[in-house]
């Protein structure tokens, strides 16, 4: 079933999107000097000159997922944390016109269209900058952050820019629990993959099989894949069953995706921690087994042998899969042994039958 859906999705994606396919996607810009968002519109009246956008800065683009929108609290929190962390351009992509539908498959198909529109936005910024500042040669890094379906949108946009050989290309993509339904058995050209950018880091927080209510991809797809608390179920999140999903009210969905949403909570907290310099989400190299977890969890961690989950992940040379321990409530960054026993219990449940791997 999963492979059939993935193959059908690939068939839809073979045709190149064009202007007639365009969705009502909003591009909302902010900065330290201009924290109130300003919307720009693709076309002749682009309006970049009315913003505080500076190409020399790092530009961070945030893309939401299914049944979401650009005004979500978590996006506001991440935007605020980014502006406190550094002098950056922040761009919020609101594609709620294509994501707020109960037809998940339709939203999945829309990711290609939105990815194409995002690439056109980046191309517009490139052209506007080249015209306004023809001698500019200090292009700041471009970092895309996408949650769930938004992660795959980021991959599409980056691949499209490569095809066009755009002057300004994506240096980093952070995938926040990239969506599993429709994408798990699909070709790498359809979902986010490490080939999409020089550095792709992924935070897996709900990477179970779909039959076990997993919303995120369980497989490693980046240069660095972080599996906080094993990457399946997050501490403090309510455990549910299929019966809870039958009525499908919004409140039940929000509860069900608690683990799925922890990915963006962890990234935002990594920003606030980096600003305050008070904690690091240290990550041990991990082979994804319970036995190896028992071996590594008691080992000391520092920048020479470990990596760090979150905004500072790009500062480390280590590549591969990593285990991160977190607390069950905010602040989640907890560099202590207090949370280990609870995580052990959680992993015994999540990895039942794998304790002898």
TrEMBL record:
Pfam families xref list: Lipase
Native organism: Acromyrmex charruanus
Gene Ontology BP term (one): lipid catabolic process
InterPro entries per record: AB_hydrolase_fold, Lipase, Lipase_N, TAG_lipase
Gene Ontology MF terms in the entry: phospholipase A1 activity
Domain Lipase: 13-332
EC number annotated for this UniProt entry: 3.1.1.32
Gene from which the chain derives: Pnlip_4
Subcellular location: Secreted
Keyword list, A-Z: Disulfide bond, Hydrolase, Secreted
Reactions mediated catalytically: a 1,2-diacyl-sn-glycero-3-phosphocholine + H2O = a 2-acyl-sn-glycero-3-phosphocholine + a fatty acid + H(+)
Name this polypeptide is given: phospholipase A1
Broad class of where this protein is predominantly found: secreted
């Amino acid at each position: 079933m999963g492979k059939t859906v993935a193959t059908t999705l690939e068939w839809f994606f073979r045709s190149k999107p064009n202007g007639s396919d365009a969705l009502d996607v909003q591009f909302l810009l902010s900065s330290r000097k201009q924290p109130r968002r300003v919307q720009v519109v693709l076309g002749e009246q682009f309006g970049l000159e009315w913003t505080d956008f500076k190409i020399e800065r790092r530009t961070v683009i945030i893309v939401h997922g299914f049944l979401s929108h650009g005004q979500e609290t978590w996006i506001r929190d991440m935007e605020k944390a980014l502006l406190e962390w550094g002098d950056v351009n922040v761009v919020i992509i609101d594609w709620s016109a294509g994501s707020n539908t109960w037809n998940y498959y339709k939203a999945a198909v829309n990711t290609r269209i939105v990815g194409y529109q995002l690439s056109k936005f980046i191309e517009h910024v490139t052209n506007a900058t080249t015209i306004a500042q023809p001698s500019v040669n200090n292009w700041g890094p471009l970092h895309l952050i996408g949650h769930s379906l938004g992660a795959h949108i980021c991959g599409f946009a980056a691949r499209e820019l490569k095809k066009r050989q755009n002057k300004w290309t994506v240096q980093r993509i952070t995938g926040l629990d990239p969506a599993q339904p429709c994408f798990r058995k699909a070709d790498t050209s359809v979902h986010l993959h490490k080939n999409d950018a020089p550095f792709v880091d992924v935070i897996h927080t709900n990477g179970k099989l779909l039959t076990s209510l997993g919303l995120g991809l369980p497989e490693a797809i980046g240069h660095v894949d972080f599996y906080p608390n094993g990457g399946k179920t997050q501490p403090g999140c309510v455990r549910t069953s299929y019966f809870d999903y039958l009525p499908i009210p919004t409140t039940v969905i929000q509860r069900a995706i608690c683990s799925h949403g922890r990915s963006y909570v962890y990234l935002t907290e990594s920003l606030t921690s980096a600003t305050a310099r008070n904690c690091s989400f240290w990550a041990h190299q991990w082979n994804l087994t319970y036995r190896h977890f028992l071996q590594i969890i008691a080992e000391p961690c520092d920048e020479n042998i470990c990596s760090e989950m979150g905004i500072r992940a790009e500062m480390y040379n280590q590549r591969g899969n990593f285990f991160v321990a977190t607390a069950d409530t905010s602040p989640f960054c907890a560099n202590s042994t207090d949370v280990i026993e609870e995580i052990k219990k959680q992993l015994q449940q999540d990895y039942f039958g794998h304790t002898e791997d």
